Request: fold
Amino acid sequence: MTPHAELPVPEVTYKGANRRYRRIFIPVMTFYVVFCFVGPLLMMLYEGAPPIWLMATVGVISGVPIAVVFWLIGRYLRETDEFTRQIQLDALLPAAGITLSLAVIWGFLELYLVVPRAKIFSPMIMVGPAFFFFYSMTFTAQRILRGESLKDVPHIGTRER
Amino acid sequence: MAETSFREAARRYRRLFWPAMISYAVICISGAALLKALDQPAPWVSAIVALATAIPAVASVWLLARFVRETDEYTRKIQTEAMLSGGAIMLSLAAVWGFLELYGVIPPMKDFPVVLLMWFAFFFFYGASFVVQQLHRGETLRSALKNDPLCLGRDVAK
Reply:
């Protein structure tokens, strides 16, 4: 192989990439929402503490759909057109930067006991939602900066165009 | 977009990255020592120490962003791809970890805030993704490592 060769990029169209994204995103998210209820219900069926293998399985199955969404975003970026890739990258990277920065700040505040250590659930579970929140903010902010309308936002997986 | 050359961008990166990392190490140790010496410090003292410790870490993230804006197209592309993969792996693991903690499989860490590990995890996965992607592109391991995984701002002859 020649040096500086590109990764194999299966570029499809904007429309095709959105369709392929939707086709997996919607089932996965439906499963995620349902399983977030089914998982705890399953554990409540046990008298007393459920076995550790069950809790581990339910925990992993609940987390995996989030990982699948990240993989989907990666595939979408590879598949869609250059312009969409650029505007999505411009929103995704700052959002990840903001999330990571806040995680570090929060981590040190926790370490030095300025904020209480979470006893019920760990801040780890808020990291994903925080990322998607900041992603929507950075995406919107950059649309405004580019002087575009906020109607018909071409979000990933859109049916527009 | 203030595009400078690869070399210039790397130099500007280096010039802040290493001071940031050294001050990070110094503040980490001296801050913890200070809080220990004070014995039950006021919350505002702890808060200032915590924020001061976090600033260099946050700066390192901001520096990465400036570096990819300033460097050449090719470097931007390979570094961005590695950062995205690294970030995705880190956030995926965070989601799984979060649920495992929620359901009590992993005991909640009382002595150490686990979100703090995310910063290290990100840089680890970012560097690993970079090397893997360069190998995929047909580069040798040696040239992949020479091409600066982790954006340490090495002066690579271009």
Remarks:
- Chain B touches chain A through 58 residues (CB under 8 Å).
- Chain B is about 75% helix and 0% strand.
- Chain B has two domains: 1-71, 73-158.
